[in-house]
């Protein structure tokens, strides 16, 4: 078919389709490049990210309690039972400001905050989407005592339920220094 044989409206439609196809390829290609660029984890494997916790006037930088390669082929420590979780006490009535670096926030990540309530332990938190959260505030109240904070970074492995397996766990034991009686 010769373009000269097409009517003006048909040529315009063909040009629009070609432009849309080129734009689609550019957008999809750019998105794939953006999402995979730097996601090899090689630099992170050498320098795992740290999370900042600010309680009162004290800032504490937390290193991963467990760090694995993106493929989960090598982990430190090798066994979950060997993890060392630092103490960062958050007294009842205080809050902790949790800040993650851009190397964490630019990808999906999960936060789990564990609390002790009058009805027993409970968990709060959830998945944070790429670029949506860098900082959050967690409160410890008499009826909702913050006991633990855990950041989980996904690997490329999926469990039997279709959930990404954590490649990293960055955690802090936030139990208050004194037992709270509620008086």
Task: Please name the defining characteristics of this protein.
183 residues, alpha+beta, Immunoglobulin-like, 2 domains, 6-stranded antiparallel sheet, 4-stranded antiparallel sheet, 3 helices, 10 strands, membrane
Brief description of this entry?
The protein is α+β, with helices and mostly antiparallel strands. The chain has helices at about 10-35, 40-45, 100-105, and strands spanning about 50-55, 60, 65-70, 75, 95-100, 110-115, 120-130, 135-140, 145-160, 165-175.
Describe the structure.
- The protein has helices at residues 8-36, 42-46, 102-105; strands spanning 51-55, 58-62, 66-68, 75-76, 95-99, 109-117, 120-128, 135-139, 145-158, 164-173.
- With 183 residues, the protein is of the alpha+beta class.
- The chain folds into two domains: 6-36; 48-171, Sandwich (Immunoglobulin-like).
Overall number of structural domains: 2
- In CATH, the architecture of the largest domain is Sandwich
Instruction: Enter the CATH topology name of the largest domain.
Output: Immunoglobulin-like
Class from helix and strand fractions = alpha+beta
Major sheet size, sense and barrel closure: 6 strands, antiparallel
Q: Quickly count the helices.
A: 3
Strand order of the largest sheet: 4-3-10-9-6-7
Whole-number average pLDDT?
A: 83
Q: Give helix and strand order, one letter per element, not per position.
A: HHEEEEEHEEEEE
What fraction of the residues are assigned to beta strands by DSSP?
Answer: 35-45%
Terminal CA distance: 87 Å
Helix content: 10-25%
Number of strands: 10
CATH domain class name of the largest domain: Mainly Beta
């Amino acid at each position: 078919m010769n373009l000269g044989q097409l009517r003006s409206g048909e040529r315009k439609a063909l040009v629009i389709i070609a432009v849309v196809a080129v734009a689609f390829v550019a957008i999809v290609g750019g998105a794939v490049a953006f999402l995979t660029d730097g996601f090899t984890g090689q630099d992170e494997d050498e320098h795992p990210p740290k999370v900042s916790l600010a309680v009162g006037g004290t800032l504490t930088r937390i290193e991963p309690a467990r760090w694995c390669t993106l493929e989960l082929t090598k982990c430190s420590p090798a066994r979950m039972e060997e993890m060392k979780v630092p103490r960062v006490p958050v007294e009842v009535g205080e809050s902790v400001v949790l800040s993650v670096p851009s190397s964490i926030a630019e990808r999906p990540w999960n936060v789990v905050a564990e609390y002790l309530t009058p009805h027993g332990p409970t968990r709060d938190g959830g998945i944070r989407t790429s670029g949506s959260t860098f900082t959050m505030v967690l409160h410890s109240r008499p009826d909702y005592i913050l006991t633990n904070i855990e950041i989980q970074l996904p690997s490329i492995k999926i469990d039997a339920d279709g959930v990404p397996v954590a490649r990293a766990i960055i955690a802090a034991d936030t139990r208050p220094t004194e037992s709270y009686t509620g008086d």
